Amino acid sequence: MGPSLDYSLGAKTPYRNFDLQASTMMFLKATIISLLTSSIAVLGAPSCSDSPNVPVDDVQVCVDELHSENGDGTTTCEAISNGIELSGSGSATIWGTSSGVDSTTSYCGHVADSVQEIIDSCTKDGLTGGSNVAVGNGDFIVEVTSD
């Protein structure tokens, strides 16, 4: 009988002199880094208006409305190529515009989250404005404007 071979995790294979466990960890690390960088590229940061002019309180009412419309988490909002009003309150209007397609949808809760990112990133002196991609759908552009 020949020598016994150890095929347990972490053992050296009889044919190659490398550690399976280390090789697997390197692969997982590379995969995670790749996923993180692609997610950052897709989501990006909101594009802030040069002169924000929409009261944050009005925009927050829209965020709350979009979240409440989401209900069970499956309600979708639609964006079309020439833009459609998704919500309005006071002097704030939330628009949905599709990019590169005639129309697209995203969960209303995701749209609300994207508007909240605009508020968080683009507010100055109680005023905000800008655009962002909807969470999970790079073809859905959300814009905060005044009427």
UniProtKB/TrEMBL annotation:
<protein>
    <recommendedName>
        <fullName>Ecp2 effector protein domain-containing protein</fullName>
    </recommendedName>
</protein>
